């Protein structure tokens, strides 16, 4: 059962910026008018700006910038992604919560967001530094009707949606380093993607896509080893950025690309990915398990594999590994 407070926020939010009378609110929520007034005072303490006019009622003028289940949904322009939001101020990792929710109730489109992760994780159990209030730390639960071997395409799709978001909102020119990093021409990384999968042999049960984007960090917010490789939107532009709006823009961008991908296949993603791909046409170093070798990076194959020309001149497809230069 939803709390009275949340129902109140939703009623006011649905009404956009129009007034809604205290009488109507008290009837809909089944509470007295003075209880409505007390709730309004509590909301104001949380940063909601509310206008109250006699004979007309109440209306929201603005929402607090801080992230919450309600503020993420206010003005969100998606059809299915983020229609359910789980928010934590502090958690170990949003991936862990998302796995638990997906196991219990599936929840295609549910997102989990945290202000801070104390054990944020990258690939291969590496650490992902996720300080309080400075970034977008989010996991999306998806149930794509796909065989498991196509799941890596979703990482590439996410990278495109994230890159488009950064480019559109900040005017920066981000690049994608195969398969999961977003960086700039200075080779500093501002975002990473972690795709985790629960699957049967030929069917995905669910995918959790974790996205970490550094937004308002300063260089000395990170330990030294991370400082060497990391950057944030604030460092690149010299400006603070509103996290809530970035989350909303990203969700819209992801949803429309995902819908297009489901209708038309990977080609729509591939073309966009290649327009942002880092070092296409250059010599790169490929690391797979304990083997390192050089090759020319050609681009993506039609299925999303990394297409390279090895030193013997043969073209190969790679499905895993890491690249460097
Ligand atoms: C990634 O791993 O880039 C995937 C990161 C995914 C993070 C999200 S946040 C929401 C969700 N919940 C989680 O717990 N995780 C996901 P990988 O390619 O393995 O990169 C990890 C490496 O990046 C580390 O070994 C560090 O060197 C570096 N690193 C750590 N924190 C960083 C940061 N905030 N910014 C840039 N680089 C960082």
From TrEMBL:
Entry keyword Transcription regulation: yes
Catalytic activity: biotin + L-lysyl-[protein] + ATP = N(6)-biotinyl-L-lysyl-[protein] + AMP + diphosphate + H(+)
Keyword flag Repressor: yes
GO terms classed as biological process: protein lipoylation; regulation of DNA-templated transcription
Feature: DNA-binding region: 22-41
Lineage: Bacteria, Bacillati, Bacillota, Bacilli, Bacillales
SUPFAM superfamilies, sorted: C-terminal domain of transcriptional repressors, Class II aaRS and biotin synthetases, Winged helix' DNA-binding domain
Molecular functions per Gene Ontology: ATP binding; biotin--[biotin carboxyl-carrier protein] ligase activity; DNA binding; transferase activity
Residue numbers binding biotin: 117, 121-123, 188
Pfam families linked: BPL_C, BPL_LplA_LipB, HTH_11
Assigned protein family: Belongs to the biotin--protein ligase family.
Annotated keywords: ATP-binding, Biotin, DNA-binding, Ligase, Nucleotide-binding, Repressor, Transcription, Transcription regulation
Domain BPL/LPL catalytic: 70-262
Purpose of the protein: Acts both as a biotin--[acetyl-CoA-carboxylase] ligase and a repressor.
EC number(s) reported in the record: 6.3.4.15
InterPro entries attached to this UniProt entry: aa-tRNA-synth_II/BPL/LPL (IPR045864), ArsR-like_HTH (IPR011991), Bifunct_BirA (IPR030855), Biotin_CoA_COase_ligase (IPR004408), BPL_C (IPR003142), BPL_LPL_catalytic (IPR004143), HTH_11 (IPR013196), Transcriptional_repressor_C (IPR008988)
GO terms under cellular component: cytoplasm
Matching PANTHER family: BIOTIN PROTEIN LIGASE, BIOTIN--PROTEIN LIGASE
Name the UniProt record assigns to this protein: Bifunctional ligase/repressor BirA
């Amino acid at each position: 059962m939803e709390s009275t407070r949340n129902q109140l926020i939703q009623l006011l939010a649905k009404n956009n910026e129009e007034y809604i009378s205290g009488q109507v609110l008290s009837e809909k929520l089944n509470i007295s008018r003075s209880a409505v007034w007390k709730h309004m005072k509590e909301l104001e303490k949380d940063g909601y700006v509310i206008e109250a006019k006699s004979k007309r009622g109440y209306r929201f003028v603005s929402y607090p910038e801080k992230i919450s289940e309600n503020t993420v949904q206010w003005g969100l322009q998606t059809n299915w992604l983020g229609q359910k939001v789980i928010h934590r101020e502090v958690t170990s990792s949003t991936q862990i919560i998302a796995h638990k929710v997906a196991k219990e109730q599936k929840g295609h489109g549910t997102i989990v967001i945290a202000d801070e992760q104390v054990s944020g994780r990258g690939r291969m159990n590496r650490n992902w530094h996720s300080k309080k209030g400075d970034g977008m730390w989010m996991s999306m639960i998806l149930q794509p009707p796909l065989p498991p071997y196509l799941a890596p395409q979703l990482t590439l799709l996410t990278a495109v949606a994230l890159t488009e978001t950064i480019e559109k909102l900040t005017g920066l020119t981000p690049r994608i380093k195969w398969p999961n990093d977003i960086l700039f021409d200075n080779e500093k990384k501002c975002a990473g993607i972690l795709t985790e999968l629960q699957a049967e042999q030929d069917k995905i049960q669910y995918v959790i896509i974790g996205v970490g984007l550094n937004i308002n960090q300063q260089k000395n917010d990170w330990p030294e080893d991370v400082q060497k490789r990391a950057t944030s939107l604030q460092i690149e532009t010299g400006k603070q950025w509103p996290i809530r709006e970035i989350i909303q823009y990203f969700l819209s961008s992801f949803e429309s690309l995902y819908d297009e991908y489901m209708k038309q296949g990977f080609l729509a993603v591939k073309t966009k990915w290649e327009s942002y791909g880092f070092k296409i046409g250059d010599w790169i170093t490929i690391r797979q398990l304990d083997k390192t070798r050089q090759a020319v990076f050609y681009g993506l194959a039609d299925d999303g594999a990394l297409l390279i020309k090895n030193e013997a001149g043969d073209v190969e497809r790679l499905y895993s590994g890491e690249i460097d230069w």
